[in-house]
Predict the 3D structure of the following.
Amino acid sequence: MATPVLKARGLNRQFGHVRALDNTDFEVYPGEVTALIGDNGAGKSTLVKALSGNLSVDSGAIEFEGKPVVLANPAEASALGMETVHQDLALAPHLNPVQNVYLGREIMRSGLAGAFGFMDDAEMRRASRAAFDDLGATVRSLSNQVGSMSGGQKQAIAIARAVHWAKKLVFLDEPTAALGVRQTKNVLDMIRRVSDTGIAVVFISHSMPHVMEVADRIQVLRLGHRAATLDAKATSMEELVGLMTGANAGDAAA
Amino acid sequence: MSNSTKAPGMGPETTAIAGIDAKETRFTKLARTQWLQILIVLIAIIVLFSIAAPESFPHWGNVRLIIQNASILAILAVGMTFVIVTAGIDLSIGSVLVFSGVVAAMVMRAMGGDGWGTAIVGIIAAILSGIAWGLFNGLIITKLKVPPLIVTLGSMGIALGLAQILTGGVDIREVPAVLTNSIGYGNVFGTVPVISVIALAVVVVGAIILHRTRFGLHTFAIGSNEESARRVGVKVDRRLIAVYTLTGGLTGLAGVLSLSQFSTTAIAGQTETNLNVITAVVIGGTSLFGGIGTIIGSIVGLFIPAVLQNGFVIMGVQPFWQQVAVGLVLIIAVYVDQVRRAQASRGGDAGVWRHLLARRRG
């Protein structure tokens, strides 16, 4: 089997008396959509924070493309080609979609104008439009404030931003939680299109139908520990729910 | 697992997303801009005074006086706009202005002479003093995480106190003649005050930096969502320190201009400067919650109190009414901003006027 883009072994993280991560293993393969599911408090968000450089672990090892790495902050994860779409999306509501996509990584004009801090707005606009179109994202205006847009459009912008910068891996934390039916379908389509380009996707969700629809591989977390890794084609909703809740014990480790 | 059987959030959003931007034309967007609404108010005030006092109000001599009086405040308003766009505040500007003027006056007195050499050293001393205070404010706010309101309230007291300690509480009135003659009372084209030309240059450059450069964009991003700016790699602390330092430097410049104009350090004369400048910036449509604002709006906002005061004096109305009127304008401006923000966060875009009308009917 191919080398995982990202692999974690034996991650532990304690918050006071709570063991958020309990010897957790995890791996993601290129071009695959890996769903990460689990009940509330199972440690999904904690795991993603640890893997994206947003949280340090007490112990455990992370490998990126087979090489051990330490992810001290999100910038280091970004430098490796990994981007995260947080549940709160982390968009600046008063900026427009283009400014949000390029915030912190603006394209400057060449020569003296660039040295004085002037940006190449036309190029950023063109590239953002292309990025939205590639994903089939419905962003109707590039010049309006993101804050005035619908939840679906905001989500599309946040995902497009992550995909635009991610070369290897995108984490999506509950991307469909706040969306209506049609927006959810758009986001799921988008996820498929991203993985078709060879970028690995980690998709955190509560929603079994969404997971079944879009994932290649499903990892179930329970009480901070990986309860099972399943092929999405060969499992059923009943099995997943059973593993999440602990009703059926899954693999021996659980 | 209720989520597994039911699709979440089947809200009205599905139908609402269409058409938000469709009816968004250049004109309606422009009309929603607060500084344009305020400009209309300003023009209305000017027209009213011109009709009421056609003999004295609408004449260049009077207009020149209004512009000259507003010039130093305009420089301060540029810095304050940057600060408020980051969702910060700077209460220390009046005191820093005085402190910078005192340092400049003392340096120039120590050097002696009435020439440009002394004047230029004085100007540099004032600007450096302002920069030092801005740096102090910025470092405490970002590194010690003390809220800007408190930091600048503290430095407001410290700067004024130090200015009084330096002078023993007595104003310094020795200012090189070249400063007062060329900058303080000087004119361009025989009639435009030099101070106003300097202020205009600061306003234009400030507007370009805020609205056209990466630095300006990051200023808005920090005020809009500091955490998201940090996550995508904007150097938030460094930008904030730069914003407060910029404001400090401009305040230092204002200090030496004030010294040139009034030939005195006027230690007791700046107690309300901070609030007057904040009022102007907020009336001009810059949101105290950050992320929204324009330099041009702040300048328009500055002229409303200035024109009201001038007009009331000319018409023989007690000038105290100016304070009443400005207070009302301020409250209305912030109310309009609140409505606008509430609407934006709800995802709607119906516009302030429609909201106001709807509320009245309801």
About this structure: The domain at 6-86+154-245 of chain A is CATH 3.40.50.300 (Rossmann fold). Chain A touches chain B through 49 residues (CB under 8 Å).
